[in-house]
Amino acid sequence: MSKFRKEYSLNPETLMYEIAKVPAGKRLLKIGVYIVSCLAVTMLYFWLYVGVFKLDPPVTAMLKRKNAEWNSKLELMNRQLDIYEAELSDLNLRNDDIYRSIFGMNEIPQEVLNAGFGGVNRYAEFDDMVSNSLLKETYQRLDVLAKRSFVQGKSFDEVAQLSQRAGEMASCIPAIPPIDPKPGTYHLTSEFGTRWDPVYGGYRTHSGVDLSTKQGNPIYATGDGVVESVDFQFFGYGHQVVINHGFGYKTRYAHMSTISVVEGMKIKRGECIGAVGKTGKVTGEHLHYEVIYRGTPVNPANFFDLDITSDEYATMVQKVEEASPAILRPEFSAKVNNK
Fold first, then answer.
1. Which class for 289: exposed (0-12), middle (13-18), buried (19 or more C-beta within 10 A)?
2. In angstroms, rounded to a whole number, what is the distance separating the alpha carbons of residues 228 and 207?
3. How many of the other CB atoms lie within 10 Å of CB of 71?
4. Crossing angle, helix 58-94 and helix 133-163, to 10 degrees?
């Protein structure tokens, strides 16, 4: 059945209604009028809906509603990411200031934490999108948090491995005096910090302590480690030895008269490394002793107890000598004396 209404006319001969024959032109005219009317009504509707009442078309309104829902979800996700970032920053702070510090490990550099996020635009796919800033920012934060979490996890693994060597660390930290603390055999002539320079004058930073004692008295390593350097400075420390104890700790022994160790040599706490002298920039025989932690000199008085008895000290030295009887190497000491 045609969707257009049919027209009928009365036949005077048969007295019956018959379908009237409408000219094609008239039919087309009616169809055109119908289409134009529909378009006019539609345009009037949109003009009133959008132009007069300032309302969005239904499809646009639906898309805006969906967009608002997703933005709300993204904002909720970002608030949750704020919490995760705060917790991760707290873990990183405790890791650097407590866990890694205890074992003398350096802090994680920022360039390591941020590695892989500079240079190439990793989010170019979002640049062509309209209103992509929140979505792009969320993706970036997720990537950064994932990378930081991975680096932090690796750091905790390193700390866990190092914590298993806690006993070894205890023997490596410089924790005894570098000379026999027998009363009357030494004097603490210069402490750590700012002092008046006895040679050049003026106030200067003194990076260690000076222990005045008889030339030739033995000097002992204050912790297990490896001899890092053995050298001579005519206007400085004179004959000196630097021992790397690991875990961020190093010690320096300066102005020595003889040295009985060589670079790369493993050292035990209480092992003799040379003798007190007056080489370099000095006004008399003494030992200049430093403790260096993570590249910065610190007060050695915080690491040794001069109240330890001479007998206790001698017992410790004797045990080390029994474990390594050939400690002193005269041939090397003679070579240093002639330098």
1. buried
2. 19
3. 13
4. 20
DSSP H/E element including 315? helix 310-323
Beta strands in 106-237 (DSSP E): 186-190, 193-196, 203-206, 209-213, 218-220, 225-233
| Cα–Cα dist 79/307, whole Å | 57
- pLDDT for 337 beyond 50: no
What is the helix, strand, coil percentage profile of the chain, to 5? 40, 25, 35
CA dihedral 96, 101, 106, 109 (to 10 degrees): 10
**Angle in degrees, CA 293, 298, 300, rounded to 5:** 110
Cα dihedral value 246, 248, 249, 255, nearest 10: 100
Separation between Cα atoms, residue 250 and residue 241, nearest integer Å = 10
Does the pLDDT of residue 113 top 60, yes or no?
Answer: yes
Distance CA 101, CA 170 (A): 14
Q: What is the pLDDT of residue 75?
A: 87
**Single-letter residue type at 328:** L
Task: Give all strands (DSSP E) within the chain, no chain letters.
Answer: 8-11, 16-19, 186-190, 193-196, 203-206, 209-213, 218-220, 225-233, 238-246, 249-259, 266-267, 272-276, 287-293, 296-298
Lookup: tokens for 86: 């705060």
> CB-based burial of residue 65 (10 Å sphere; 0-12 exposed, 13-18 middle, 19+ buried)?
exposed
Condensed to tens digits (0 to 9), the pLDDT of residues 248-302 reads 899 999 999 999 999 999 999 999 999 999 999 888 899 999 999 989 999 998 8
